[in-house]
Amino acid sequence: MSFFNISKLGRINGSLKKIVELPRYVDQNEWLAVNTFDFFNYINQFYGVIADFCTTRDCPVMSAGSNYEYTWTDSQKKEKNVKYAAPKYVDFVMTRIQNSLNDESVFPTKSAPGCEFPRDFINILRSIYKELFRVLAHIYWHHYDKILHLSCEGHLNTLFAHFICFAREFDLLDKKELAPMADLIAELEYQMK
């Protein structure tokens, strides 16, 4: 993955490790929810930047390079491992995550009694982070040239570094899921030392 220009990492005041740590006196689920909402919005915006280039013709399968293809599973429709073109897959991802974020039983916004996070909240988040990671990996592998052309690579790299650091801090991504971006992650970690 040497074609990624990681020399441009947006300015970060302080360490990312410090930025992602759970602040004192803040409920962990609230911290996770707020950051998940932000990451969803930022990644959705970045995808929006390249969406016109991510077509069913140019991206007939959701992938991160030629070695990693992603399939869709919809438990409500009992569909498993269905291959979709990247734009449709990303649309499914963003719709499912948006629906979860809007669901008060998953992401409660009221501090009234009975408005609690579900017991399996961390598992819900792991699913969300896995899907968001796949969108980022697809952007890097298949649309990074557009990001470079628009001079947005510093912003994307900073978002990616923040996302990875946060996901690691709270164990939200399985290590094997990171494989398509392992070289970039290693380089970013080296640069941020």
Automatic annotation (TrEMBL):
It holds the Pfam family Mob1_phocein. InterPro entries: MOB_kinase_act_fam (IPR005301), MOB_kinase_act_sf (IPR036703). Signal peptide: none annotated. Zn(2+) binds at residues 54, 59, 138, 143. The keyword S-adenosyl-L-methionine does not apply. GO terms for biological process: budding cell apical bud growth; establishment or maintenance of cell polarity; RAM/MOR signaling; regulation of establishment or maintenance of bipolar cell polarity regulating cell shape; septum digestion after cytokinesis. SUPFAM superfamilies: Mob1/phocein. GO terms for cellular component: cell cortex; cell division site; cellular bud neck; cellular bud tip; mating projection tip; nucleus; serine/threonine protein kinase complex. Keywords: Metal-binding, Zinc. GO terms for molecular function: protein kinase activator activity. The keyword Metal-binding applies. It comes from the Eukaryota. This is Mob1-like protein. The lineage of its organism: Eukaryota, Fungi, Fungi incertae sedis, Chytridiomycota, Chytridiomycota incertae sedis.
